[in-house]
Amino acid sequence: MEYPFIPYSRELVDGDESLRRAIQYFNEMKTRRSVREFSDKPVDRAVIETILKTAGTAPSGANKQPWTFCVIGDPELKRKIRIAAEEEEKVNYGGRMSDEWLRDLAPLGTDWQKPFLEIAPWLIVVFRKVYDLEGGEKRKNYYVQESVGIACGFLISAIHHAGLVTLTHTPSPMNFLTDILKRPENEKPFLLLPVGYPAENAVVPDIHRKELKDTTRFY
Q: Three-state SS for 120?
């Protein structure tokens, strides 16, 4: 099968407008922070659906779109996920993580307790599809890790743009998510994102991003 090709069409802008938009977007995104203290204030499902549509516009290897977004709002399921995640994290903080890793985490004040997994109104679990199943046959996916990572970047940006907060949570191992959500064998958990509004008393560590000169080389 060959895709039909159609003219590419979008609004074209000049250099000044491009710079204005780039600065505007940077100023918005530089306020994004990983938040661990959530409000239980409801978030309309339509907002979550639109955010996920945005994530789905990400590029992917051979346009395979090898991701599944599992969205959990059910309190009992969220509780099960919290219990299972904390079991893994307790082992991690209790000896599975290296001393160097624990030292690097210490200034951020993190620990094995994850109450936000129950408090946030929504959890989004991103699964990567290592292959597709079509008519009982396996169909190879390409650049799965990279494709899903890009989609998650779009997702996090869309969450922030919608006035919400999130946290990239990766309890390791994450196989319990496959079991709890009853996902098929071709899907592997990639990322867990609580999504909602920040608690009124939410605080974040006073960290600073590296300067452009420290991360970029022009040739």
A: coil
How does pLDDT run across 68-93, given as a tens digit for each residue? 999 999 999 999 999 999 999 999 99
Rg (CA), the chain: 19
Taking the whole predicted model, whether its pTM rises above 0.90 is answered as yes
Architecture of domain 47-194 in this structure: 3-Layer(aba) Sandwich (3.40)
Smallest CA-to-CA distance from 110 within 192, 49, 170 is with: 170
Alpha helices per DSSP H over the chain: 15-29, 45-55, 75-91, 99-105, 116-119, 144-161, 175-181, 212-215
Burial of 179 (0-12, 13-18, 19+ CB in 10 A): exposed
Q: Domain segments of the chain: what residues?
A: 47-194
CA distances from 16 to 12, 34, 41, 50 (A): 12, 32, 40, 30
Strand partners, 34: 166
Q: At which residue do the structure tokens 């989004």 appear?
A: 124
CA distance 61 to 152: 15
Spatial separation of the C-alpha atoms in residues 115 and 142, rounded to whole Å:
36
Q: CA 125 to CA 72: how far, in whole Å?
A: 8
